[in-house]
Write a structure and sequence with these properties.
alpha/beta; Glucose Oxidase, domain 1; seven-stranded mixed β-barrel; 32% helix
């Protein structure tokens, strides 16, 4: 038996993300007001399509976007949920770093899943991209040549307007079949997904092993992942 003190929402629970909530709430309010203002039977209202029209949908969408809301929440959702994925942008003291062995001027700092197999690895300075302001600066000033972006698993949405400007991408989540993986193949941007990395800061020079074979269809079930290595090139920055 339902507790009478508990009010069950007539229209269901509210959406957890702002954009669908704003859009759907506006529709619910509009439809509810039209039902309240009409004395016609429910079946008639539904069948003659007067409760909600295409013009209504266009108007609702315009009002939502004109309010200034864009897609920042979706673009930064993963960072908000797991902020520890990003390391501090401050250069750590060398004594605090768990350093891998230095081999030929390279230090292994991570690994991930290669999206697009290439004939040779690529290297460049990293940029940790985690907020809209950074993306806006890149849009205005351009992405510096050779930049390899480090993003979280919602960063494909965040960096979509500048994606093709990167020389490469290191993504801290997702799979090679995620949306970002699809975009990376479309734009031919070398990308490693599902990465685990050590401490990297803006300007560190890294080499990403895009010569590695992309994971197979069942790799994430079998655990056969993480074969593309990420190296930090010491003395390069």
């Amino acid at each position: 038996m339902t507790d009478p003190a508990i009010t069950v929402p007539k229209w269901g629970t509210a959406e957890l993300t702002p954009l669908p909530n704003r859009f759907n709430s506006a529709i619910r309010d509009l439809v509810a007001s039209r039902i309240a203002a009409s004395d016609r039977p429910w079946a008639e209202l539904v069948l003659d399509s007067s409760l909600f029209t295409i013009d209504d949908a266009v108007t609702v969408e315009k009002n939502v976007l004109d309010s200034g809301y864009r897609f920042e929440y979706s673009a930064t959702a993963s960072l908000a949920a797991d902020p520890d994925k990003y390391k501090s942008a401050d250069k750590p003291e060398p004594s605090n770093q768990a350093e891998a062995q230095l081999v030929d001027g390279r230090r292994l700092v991570g690994a991930g899943d290669n999206v697009i197999r290439k004939a040779a690895p690529i290297s460049g300075p990293v940029a940790l991209v985690s907020d809209v302001e950074q993306v806006m600066n890149f849009l205005v000033e351009g992405v510096p040549t050779g930049t390899i972006a480090v993003i979280d698993d919602s960063g494909g949405t965040l960096t979509a307007p500048i994606l093709e400007g990167f020389a490469g991408i290191i993504c801290l989540g997702g799979t090679v079949r995620s949306h970002l993986g699809i975009l990376a193949r479309e734009y031919d941007v070398p990308t490693l997904m599902n990465c685990s990395i050590g401490t990297l800061v803006d300007g560190d020079i890294v080499e990403i092993e895009i010569t590695a074979t992309p994971p197979g269809a069942d790799a994430y079930e079998t655990g056969d992942t993480g074969h593309a290595r990420i190296w930090k090139l010491e003395g390069e920055n």
